[in-house]
Amino acid sequence: MSTLRDGEQGPGASLSQSEKLELATQIARLGVDIIEAGFPIFLARRLRCRRRHRPPRRAPGTDPGGAGLRAILADIDACWRRCRPHANPDPLFIATSPIQMAYQMRKEPADVLKQAVAAVRHAREYRRDVEFSAMDATRSDLGFLKEVVAAVVDAGACTINIPDTAGYALPSEHDLVAAIAAALPPEVVISAHTHDDLGLATASALAAIEAGATQVECTVNGIGKRAGNAR
To answer: Dihedrals φ, ψ of 66, to 5°?
Structure first.
């Protein structure tokens, strides 16, 4: 769940560490198995949330994972140092669309691919269950997107997140999820992350599920940057 990370980027939604901890505890009670706590490299102190229910993807009696972000080795190390043994240094995200690679990352596609693979391999040194997110996937070239996700799965990623980072895609366009799923081994989990810029975040998340996604990254009440996330 992205409430503590993406949700905090909504207008007026900034949270203190104590507020994050309180909210994370309640989210864990809902049965959420992975909580995005924010960017670990920027956190003032570690955030751990205990849970009382069984998580869907983890062993009975264990705590939910505290997930970090960014396919940057220092972030992965920080997530593990501050949150272990409850941390997942994932989802590791890096932009794959031409516009974000050129103007945000300022990297060539080959460099993006290399960084993505290196980050997944590094995260696998800490945990086996690693998620990779192709930021701005819905505006990415499908051929390059397939190349990246195939490479990170070979490097050890177990979950592939297909985010509509800019809230750009219509629900009918989430056959992209089916195209990615068809190119990967069946044991790889496909995840969706949608934004509400067109008022279609929840509809797009449902369309992604119909196309083969088995995981949705959402927020409480749909809070999030710009128009919000799927609720």
So the answer is: -95, 115
92: helix, strand or coil? strand
Q: Go through the chain and tell me how many residues it has.
A: 231
Q: List beta partners, residue 193.
A: 163, 217
The residue type found at 126 is: Y
Crossing angle of helices 73-83 and 109-124, rounded to 10°: 20
Task: Return per-residue pLDDT of the chain as tens, 231 residues.
Answer: 778 778 778 777 777 778 878 888 888 888 887 777 666 554 533 444 333 333 444 444 444 444 445 556 666 666 666 655 555 545 788 999 999 999 999 999 999 999 999 999 988 888 788 889 999 999 999 999 999 999 999 999 999 999 999 998 999 998 999 999 999 999 999 999 999 999 999 999 999 999 999 999 888 888 888 998 998
User: Would you state the structure tokens that stand for residue 56, as one six-digit string?
Assistant: 């869907």
